[in-house]
Design brief:
- Three copies of one chain form a homotrimer.
- By secondary structure, chain A is α/β, with parallel strands linked by helices.
- Chain A folds into two domains: 4-145 and 303-315, Rossmann fold (3-Layer(aba) Sandwich); 147-299, 3-Layer(aba) Sandwich (Rossmann fold), CATH 3.40.50.
- The first copy, chain A, contains twelve helices and nine strands.
- Chain A has helices at residues 24-37, 65-77, 98-107, 122-127, 147-161, 179-190, 220-224, 237-242, 249-256, 260-263, 286-289, 296-315; strands spanning 55-60, 81-86, 112-117, 135-141, 168-172, 195-199, 215-217, 229-232, 271-273.
- A five-stranded parallel sheet of chain A has the order 7-6-5-8-9.
- In chain A, helix 2 (65-77) packs across helix 12.
- Chains in contact: A-B, A-C, B-C.
- The interface between A and B is medium-sized, with 29 and 25 residues.
């Protein structure tokens, strides 16, 4: 997959489709720009007129109110207009092709598409076909990538740990089906952490794990040893019903649930992250979720800043 | 239920969850502020930049486009940003707890939650758990309260009758299941009207009616005698199907429907109110609904002003 | 049907319900105003503060995200507030009458209703009942009219052909059920084209075709001879299932599909138009849809300009 499609000839960011092919410099630049927009819950929001007169379109083929709202808020805080197309109920269902849908909305003068689709490669496909002035952000495509989630995770880690180099980071859960995990692993490696581990049942570890440059653990305690950051993945309950590879909920918690006890295997200043929505009592106990190591809500706040940064870098002059 | 949670330590309004525990002074203050925003249909809308930069989130666990739109319009006329979360189709359905949903949205920097929920006490519960700078408005919770509706009714009465003290007000219909009625009775008593009557079939009168300080009538004509204001409740047809306590639609109209004839029992300058949506030919004839005593559409217009007042008192400097 | 309801006593446009009864002068004026707002895809959008402080309400009783979004964008680019009521899921379903719904929303201070309804005459009915300061735009009612679509088609023709007088225009497809075709025929005749032809299976030609002042062809090649503009209608697949009058999809394409070959019967500089969403391989080949004669995406861009023009003429001072 060509990923230099993501950059303008001069090296500036045009699309954000995947972490693959993005240099350490670009990732750091995104995190630096995001820092200017970042505020914690309760602090006054930062706004800008940078994208006034621009139109950003949420093109969601897969329903996700939460994600769509974060992009809508980010766009509005940069003074852009926002259009929402929920294509699961729209013209695509009437037999129109994806490209025709795209070009139609583009003809309404959209400057950016934020795309979510249940097929891997959908955002790439769209990026290959938009007009020259249009940018595309991948808000999750199939099992492939979810780069804005990965970048907000990186931003959160950087806020607390400053330097990526010495870190050992563990990703726990259903790696096999997770577009979030794929993007996180790529970002962590590009940013030069010491070690990335994935921890989960053998059946949920992708076979190409070695290729990804990660260390595989099936035992939680063992995998947590000496770890600086733990990223829990969401257990997708809807998959448990139909998939024999999957353990039961309580069995999963018993083996991979984060508790005060299992957490003791990690470093004393370990960070606990989760992309949400969380299943309390499955991925972790409430004690851990609400405890001093958890930065789960900070991730949400920083997510807005990171999305504002990406939008302003793709569409605006550099702030 | 503690209701002083609704006030800041200095006595200023922070949340609006219920009329219970609010003083006459606070209610009058809300009505006074609303007066500055009030315009009749067709008059130019009043706008303000008071809440520029603030984010107001509609968090509706129970579908009501009409109500949500009134809050959205009120917020926009104060220059706030508005987020809509329809949680019946969202992350709560994926196993996330109400509090996690709340804290997630809060982390996107929401300054106010407008909450509608089919369980009594939901707005209170949320208000007890939000961060210090966040306000909560109850837009209807179960059978418990619907304070903004009650306040817009009070505002409408005040526009036409000036002084609450001498008034006799009748509420007609399904009091038992009505959160609107509960809030109206509390507001009317706090504002010091002479008498509040409730009129309806014995089976739809709550047993604690005496406690509420109202006079109960099962005969419409008797109850209307000497009355200044009649507030009709909406007959919820969906309940008629499953509830044996409920009379048939035509039987209900025959006994409790407002007609030119039954209206003659009230005072000559009686006001007719209804929260909408109205079932013509059930709660009242079209002759009454469109007649000179009806202020039903004025209620809608004033509803915007009252919501703007509450938002600006909770979030803004006092205008 | 009275159509002068569409004009103020001084002749200025108040509503846009149908092309019927509108003079050539008014149509030309709309096209002239639209020219000021028109930009092609990729060009910077034109904005105006003309409708700042005004509220425009999309009142859609029939679901159409695409159409609703074009009106929402047009309104926002004129700085108006926009309210969306999807009445298929709203209070009308609770037994409220259409007029009560209307008056309720009007009482929230709406200056314009954009109405889409599956019953012919719905927009007219609403226009007859709104308050004096309120305008109504018909965004499609049953089989009756879709005047904004017809006007954007006229605008597109004018951009490329300058003068309507010498033109021969063919409309191809399911004329019988098409509100778009009815509006297009009226507009073309009012603007004084030389000839309007309709081309389609005998079963899909309305019996009053002669009255409409059009020439009927059942053979595509014959109908295309000497033609300047071809407007393809959308084949509504959903109708094919239940309607015996309707040919199969492939049979339809074989007889009425536009191809490089059939296009040769038209003039060398023929324009190809389609209201979208398009069924490629049914109404036309991809070669034609993406070919040099196609102005399908330009129609979408110009659609925004035409809607902005109508809104600003109905609500604003003349720009």
């Amino acid at each position: 997959m060509k990923s230099n499609i993501q950059l303008h000839p001069n090296g500036r960011l045009r699309h954000l489709l995947t972490i693959e092919g993005l240099s350490r410099d670009i990732l750091i630049q995104i995190l630096d720009v995001a820092k200017q927009y970042a505020v914690l819950p309760g602090e006054p929001v930062k706004r800008s007129r940078l994208l006034q007169g621009r139109t950003i379109t949420n093109l969601f083929f897969e329903n996700s109110t939460r994600t769509r709202n974060t992009f809508e808020l980010a766009a509005r805080r940069l003074s852009a207009d926002v259009l929402n197309f929920d294509e699961s109920t729209s013209a695509t269902a009437k037999g129109e092709t994806l490209l025709d849908t795209l070009h139609n909305i583009e003809a309404m003068h959209s400057d950016m598409f934020v795309v979510r689709h249940n097929e891997s490669g959908a955002a790439h496909f769209i990026a290959e076909h938009v007009a020259e002035h249009v940018s595309v952000i991948n808000a999750g495509d199939g099992r492939h990538a979810h780069p804005t989630q990965a970048l907000l995770d990186m931003f959160t880690i950087r806020q607390y740990k400053k330097d990526f180099t010495p870190l050992k980071v563990a990703i726990v859960g259903d790696i096999l089906y997770s577009r979030v995990a794929r993007s996180q692993i790529l970002a962590l490696n590009t940013l030069g952490v010491t070690e990335v581990r994935i921890i989960g049942p053998r059946t949920l570890i992708p076979t190409e794990a070695q290729v990804l440059g990660v260390h595989v653990y099936t035992d939680l305690r063992e995998g947590l040893q000496d770890i600086d950051v733990v990223i829990m993945l969401r257990l997708q309950k809807e998959r448990m019903m139909k998939d024999v590879l999957f353990p039961s909920e309580s069995e999963y918690f018993r083996q991979y649930g984060l508790t005060a006890e299992t957490l003791e295997w990690a470093k004393p200043d370990v960070l606990i992250m989760h992309p949400g929505p969380m299943n309390r009592g499955v991925e972790m106990t409430s004690e851990v979720a609400d405890g001093p190591h958890s930065v789960i809500l900070e991730q949400v706040s920083y997510g807005l800043a990171v999305r504002m940064a990406i939008m302003s870098m793709c569409l605006g002059e550099m702030p």
